[in-house]
Each structure stands twice: as structure tokens, then as C-alpha cells.
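Exercise 7b. C-alpha cells:
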């Protein structure tokens, strides 16, 4: 089998790239090791920048998002027993974010791909990439007991942090930058109305909390927790009690609790691989970088990677020029590091660190006091939160 672009991974970045390429008349095949149901079962974030929304529209997968997504023009930060609002729209000339679950994004892109008739191979076992340092790269995998070889012009590694693409790059050709944070997020999903109309980020002496949502009837809540803890130690009643303890009294009084639909603990890390291009292999999304979820940048960075890579591939196939592909890594990394900085800053601002001590706590308080006494500081937060330009 032969194609122009082989895409490894059927997460949002792989599906978005595939759909854009298909609509541009560029042949592509997606190779995914899991089943569609498994991919859809991943519970992830759901705050989209306007750039990501525009790309979903361009891919023909934005109709349900516009019908069901929640447009947010602000966020709230709670500390000292009070909620303080950051007016994102007013501070950025009308920009906003849209709350729409990553699961729903994936579902919409899967449906668009099915409708397009483009090829996808799920349950592809033992996938491996070869020859990307030359001019005839190939992807090998087993499917239904048979070994297949897919010849292509380029390989897009959209297979996540643990995927095969980055692991196939010689260690001498890549440099990894990483920070692992000493805590995780315990997340709970419930069919309960959100406690507020916008996201509430909470700094409390007991630890960070986040009140988020997926729709007007489905809520997502998070608690900072130790990495030594297990989900089984957190029955629903304990979770709700702890969440209320970290909220200001008025918000806690309005919290509607209910049975959890899903509960999990996610570790937090910052990670960047450099470069993102190796011959005819390109890394995109979580294959090349991870951000802590505090700044809501993971899915949005995947979308900007796809923007740069798609534009480079279109320029190559339509006009025979390589400038976009040659600049891909540098352009993507410039935006990635700015998002890494913002996500790190938000994480440092709103979490309790074991080694902070009294001095660190005073610094956090001073930072928040400055933030809410300075329009310039709020504007910097808002500009980054709604998304820097591509």
C-alpha cells in the first residue's frame, strides 16, 4: 500500500491533520494501535482557543461544536476566600475560548473522516517507522494477523508521548527537556450542573482545585493530590467533601454533587523534544511536547502543530516548495515554548509545592495580589490563555 502522508495515531492531532489533508486532495492513511472505542474513551481537557476552533471548521468538523460548545469570555481565580474574575474578552479585544470536550472533538473528527472515505487502520499492532532519514520512508504494522508495509512520502508522528515515532529517533539526534511536578490532579466527571458559568481556578492552603465543565449538565472537577495516592482511596463522598473544603463558602454552598462517571489521577509534567523534524518524520502534538493542564494548552498546541505541518505539506504538494516543511520545527517550537512558559507559570501560581515553605507562600500571595491590582498583568494572562497567534 502507498500513500503520500502516513499518520501514526488517531488522536485529535492525527485526525485533524488527516481531515485537512483529505480536503486538500492530499492522500493519507492513519495507523492507530487501539480501537476507535478506546480512543474515544480517553477523558481529556476541553478548552479550545479560537485558532483551534477555526481549524476544526476548516476540517469540516465544527458544526456540533458551534451548536453545543460553551463560549467563555472570562475565568475566575479564587484565593483568600474570594473569587476574582479575569475578563478575557475585554482584555484581548474580544477574544474568547470555547469549552467543548476533547472526546467530542475526537468523535466529530472520526465522523468527518468516515464521511470522507479516507483510510484508517485501527488495531494496528507493532507499528514501526523506517527509512525516514532517506527518501522512501515506510510504516510497518500487523493487522488481523497479517504484516503490512505502507510506503509514503512523509510520516506524521501524532502517536502521543509513549508512541513509537519519537522513540524511533536516534538518541544523538534529539534532545529532551522535562520537568516532573511533585503532585497530580485527581479528576472527577459527573452529570451535575456546573457550579459556575466559567472555570474557577482555586489556590487554597489544602491545595489546588479546579471547577470546570463539559456542558451545561456535565461537570469536571479536579483536586491537587499526592502521586502516592490511588483513585480507590477517593470514594465520591470524600472527593466532594474535600472539594467543598477548598472552595469559598458561597461557591461550596452552590455545589451540586452526584455519582462520578469517571475518576482518575493524572501526573503533571512539562516536556519538550527538540527538534520536531527528522528527515521525513515530523512529530506533532503529545509526541513532541506535554504541558501541565493548568493553562489549558495541550490540545491547542496540537492544533497549532497541525497548522504549521499542514501548511508546509500543502506548499510542497501544490507548489513544489519546501520552505514550510523546513521551517516546521522552528515555528512550532517557538509557540510551544511560550505555551510551556505560561503553563508552568499558572502551575507555580496556583499549586502548593512541598518545598515552598512560608517564603514561597508569601510569593504566591504577592503574585496574585499584583495580578489583581494590575490590568497589564491581567492582560498578559488573558493574552496567553485565549491563545497566542499562529
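Sequence design result:
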Amino acid at each position: 500500500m502507498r500513500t503520500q502522508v502516513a499518520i501514526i495515531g488517531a488522536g485529535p492531532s492525527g485526525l485533524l491533520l488527516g481531515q485537512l489533508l483529505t480536503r486538500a486532495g492530499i492522500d493519507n492513511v492513519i495507523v492507530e494501535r487501539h480501537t476507535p472505542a478506546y480512543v474515544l474513551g480517553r477523558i481529556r481537557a476541553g478548552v479550545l482557543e479560537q485558532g483551534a476552533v477555526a481549524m476544526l471548521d476548516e476540517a469540516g468538523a465544527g458544526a456540533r461544536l458551534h451548536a453545543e460548545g460553551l463560549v467563555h469570555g472570562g475565568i475566575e481565580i479564587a484565593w483568600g476566600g474570594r473569587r476574582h474574575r479575569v475578563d478575557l474578552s475585554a482584555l484581548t479585544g474580544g477574544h474568547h475560548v470555547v469549552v467543548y470536550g476533547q472526546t467530542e472533538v475526537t468523535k466529530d473528527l472520526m465522523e468527518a473522516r468516515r464521511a470522507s472515505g479516507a483510510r484508517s487502520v485501527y488495531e494496528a499492532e507493532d507499528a514501526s517507522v523506517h527509512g525516514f532519514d532517506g527518501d522512501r520512508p515506510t510504516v510497518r504494522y500487523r493487522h488481523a494477523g497479517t504484516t503490512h508495509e505502507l510506503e509514503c512520502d512523509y510520516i506524521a508522528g501524532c502517536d502521543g508521548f509513549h508512541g513509537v515515532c519519537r522513540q524511533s529517533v536516534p538518541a544523538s539526534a534529539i534532545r529532551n527537556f522535562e520537568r516532573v511536578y511533585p503532585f497530580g490532579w485527581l479528576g472527577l466527571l459527573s452529570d451535575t450542573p456546573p457550579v459556575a458559568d466559567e472555570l474557577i481556578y482555586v489556590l487554597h492552603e489544602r491545595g489546588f482545585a479546579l471547577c470546570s465543565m463539559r456542558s451545561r449538565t456535565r461537570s469536571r472537577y479536579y483536586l491537587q493530590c499526592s502521586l502516592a495516592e490511588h483513585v480507590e482511596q477517593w470514594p465520591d463522598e470524600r472527593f466532594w467533601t474535600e472539594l467543598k473544603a477548598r472552595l469559598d463558602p458561597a461557591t461550596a454552598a452552590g455545589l451540586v454533587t452526584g455519582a462520578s462517571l469517571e475518576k482518575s489521577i493524572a501526573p503533571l509534567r512539562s516536556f519538550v523534544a527538540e527538534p520536531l523534524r527528522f528527515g521525513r518524520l515530523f512529530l506533532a502534538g503529545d509526541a513532541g511536547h506535554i504541558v501541565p493542564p493548568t493553562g489549558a494548552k495541550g490540545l491547542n498546541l496540537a492544533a497549532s502543530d497541525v497548522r504549521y505541518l499542514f501548511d508546509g505539506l500543502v506548499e510542497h504538494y501544490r507548489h513544489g516548495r519546501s520552505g514550510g516543511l523546513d521551517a516546521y520545527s522552528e515555528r512550532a517550537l517557538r509557540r510551544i515554548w511560550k505555551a510551556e512558559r505560561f503553563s508552568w507559570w499558572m502551575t507555580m501560581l496556583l499549586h502548593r509545592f512541598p518545598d515552598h515553605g512560608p517564603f514561597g507562600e508569601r510569593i504566591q500571595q504577592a503574585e496574585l495580589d499584583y495580578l489583581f491590582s494590575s490590568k497589564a498583568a491581567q492582560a498578559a494572562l488573558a493574552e496567553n490563555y485565549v491563545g497566542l497567534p499562529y
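Instructor comment: The first strand starts at residue 5 and ends at 8. Residues 323-350 form the longest helix (28 residues).
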